[in-house]
């Protein structure tokens, strides 16, 4: 009979928002079949062979959250490792006291308008949002609309360190929007902020362009398409900053106006005619972006028409 045992584990704290039914465990052995446990707070000691090792995997909603190496003892009397699930912000393991707290990997950030950086919210705020939104893992941006947008660790890194961006268009977009944020201060952004930002992006790259059509196509592929269709960690950096700080109303139009304006400018430039049906371009832009009808919002059509007018000017400028 084996005289070697894993240490037992006691989950001594669980956040109020996290139901025990959502927590499960897997005890993994190097030389034998794993054991699974559900709806418990105590993981018992298990016997194992002399040279065998064991780890405990803690899961929330079946998603592995943490893997902990279990100590092995050659006697039936062994210390109990205490693990707290109370903290969702940081991990602390004190081997001397045989006690751990660990990260549930739920990170919720707010975008600071002054410097456009992603700031991690405090523990109490995250705990309240976790309970309200039923979120336990992942990275999220808290928007001014009080909604959460899912993001990634990589995108947060790009937001806070834009110099790491390889995409020059996105890097320029972040720089321009940061300047506009600083200019507006505590007040609302300028009316038609989406047009102001996108025109500055276009002009920054077109002023010395040998092939303006390629530049316009590149900008459309990034800013004129549905975010999920052009989604990269870099593209999401600008999207999340804009969506976090801009309220979707007539004064602070949402990111979809960026898409409408950009794609309509692209369509007008690449399909230029002396007489243009603005509604036609509006419908094409709406279909390309949302896959639906353009007759839902007048503000969408207005953004389309502004983009079309700008695209026409670009065509005349580069095709005299």
Which SSEs are present, and which pair or pack?
Elements: E1 4-6, E2 9-13, E3 23-29, E4 35-38, E5 42-43, E6 47-48, E7 54-60, E8 63-69, E9 72-73, E10 81-84, E11 92-94, E12 99-101, E13 106-111, E14 118-120, H1 123-133, E15 138-142, E16 148-151, H2 153-160, H3 168-184, H4 193-206, H5 212-223, H6 233-245, H7 255-270, H8 278-290, H9 298-318
Parallel strand pairs: 2-10, 10-12, 13-15
Antiparallel strand pairs: 1-6, 1-9, 2-5, 3-4, 3-7, 7-8, 11-12, 13-14, 15-16
Helix pairs in contact: 2-6, 3-4, 3-6, 4-5, 5-7, 7-8, 7-9, 8-9
Give structural notes.
With 320 residues, the chain is of the alpha+beta class. It has a five-stranded mixed sheet with strand order 5-2-10-12-11, with no helix packed on it. It has a four-stranded antiparallel sheet with strand order 4-3-7-8, with no helix packed on it. The chain folds into two domains: 4-101, Immunoglobulin-like; 165-318, no CATH class. It has nine helices and 16 strands. It is elongated. The chain has helices spanning 123-133, 153-160, 168-184, 193-206, 212-223, 233-245, 255-270, 278-290, 298-318; strands at 4-6, 9-13, 23-29, 35-38, 42-43, 47-48, 54-60, 63-69, 72-73, 81-84, 92-94, 99-101, 106-111, 118-120, 138-142, 148-151.
């Amino acid at each position: 009979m084996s005289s070697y045992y894993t240490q037992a584990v006691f989950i001594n704290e669980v956040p109020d928002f996290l139901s025990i039914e959502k927590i499960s465990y897997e005890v993994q052995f190097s030389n034998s079949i794993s054991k699974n446990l559900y709806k418990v707070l105590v993981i018992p000691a298990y016997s194992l062979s002399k040279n065998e090792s064991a780890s405990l995997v803690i899961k929330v909603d079946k998603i592995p959250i943490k893997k902990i190496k279990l100590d092995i003892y050659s006697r039936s009397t062994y210390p109990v490792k205490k693990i707290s699930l109370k903290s969702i912000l940081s991990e602390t393991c004190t081997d001397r006291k045989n006690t751990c707290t660990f990260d549930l990997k739920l990170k919720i950030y707010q975008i600071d308008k002054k410097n456009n950086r992603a700031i991690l919210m405090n523990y109490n705020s995250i705990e309240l949002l976790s309970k309200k939104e039923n979120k336990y893992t992942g990275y999220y941006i808290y928007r001014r609309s009080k909604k959460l947008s899912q993001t990634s660790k990589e995108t947060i890194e790009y937001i806070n360190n834009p110099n790491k961006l390889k995409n020059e268009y996105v890097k320029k977009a972040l720089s321009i929007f940061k300047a506009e944020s600083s200019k507006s201060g505590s007040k609302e952004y300028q009316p038609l902020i989406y047009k102001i930002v996108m025109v500055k992006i276009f002009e920054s790259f077109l002023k010395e362009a040998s092939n303006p059509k390629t530049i316009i196509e590149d900008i459309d592929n990034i800013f004129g398409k549905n975010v999920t269709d052009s989604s990269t960690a870099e593209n999401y950096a600008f999207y999340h900053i804009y969506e976090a700080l801009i309220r979707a109303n007539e004064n602070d139009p949402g990111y979809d106006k960026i898409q409408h304006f950009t794609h309509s400018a692209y369509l007008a430039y690449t399909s230029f005619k002396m007489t243009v049906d603005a509604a036609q371009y509006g419908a094409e832009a709406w279909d390309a972006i949302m896959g639906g009808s353009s007759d839902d919002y007048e503000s969408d059509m207005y953004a389309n028409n502004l983009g079309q007018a700008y695209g026409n000017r670009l065509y005349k400028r580069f095709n005299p």
